[in-house]
From TrEMBL:
Organism of provenance: Actinocatenispora rupis
Protein name per its UniProtKB record: Methyltransferase domain-containing protein
InterPro entries (alphabetical): SAM-dependent_MTases_sf (IPR029063)
């Protein structure tokens, strides 16, 4: 990024950190752009608990990005492992799966036609899951160094 170190007071990522932030080397790369004490905040699709191996049968329409979904505890450890931040919050959005389902239901009616089947499939899995697996972890951390 074309910014000097310590440039940002805060970095916020909504619904996208899992696309790149699972890389063990990503936060060590990103953190220097935050001033010491500056905050990182993210909310992202994830899991109530870690799943090793087979995706549960009722999540029939899972796609490859499922494997980038993790629990709030997993993310807290992952961020802390960078050595660059201290995590101050790691929990889940209350009823996050219901918000997710509303979003997919909206997509079924209003998304570009080529996305609608995907929205319907995801809404079906969210209904079958009813919050057992899918959720929205949210994390806040501040830069300590590293
Ligand atoms: C679900 S959208 C969320 C967009 C926006 N943050 C919001 O809440 O409306 C996911 C975003 O992540 C971006 N994205 C996906 N993979 C990425 C990557 N490897 N690096 C940077 N951005 C990525 C996509 O371009 C998309 O804009």
């Amino acid at each position: 990024m074309p910014f000097p170190e310590e440039y940002f007071d805060a970095v916020v990522s909504v619904d996208s950190y899992h696309y790149f932030g699972t890389d063990d080397l990503y936060l060590p790369y990103l953190a220097p752009f935050l001033r010491t004490g500056g905050q990182l905040g993210t909310v992202l699709p994830g899991l109530t608990h870690e799943i090793d191996g087979r995706v549960p049968d009722h999540l029939r329409h899972w796609q490859q990005d499922f494997h980038s979904f993790h629990s709030a505890d997993w993310w807290a450890r992952h961020l802390a492992n960078s050595g660059a931040v201290t995590v101050t919050r790691a929990d889940v959005v209350p009823d996050g799966w219901r918000h997710w389902q509303r979003w997919e239901a909206l997509g079924v009616r209003t998304a570009p036609p080529e996305w609608r089947a995907h929205c319907a499939a995801q809404a079906e899995d969210l209904a079958a899951d009813a919050g057992r697996t899918y959720c929205f972890p949210r994390l806040v951390a501040y830069r300590t160094g590293g």
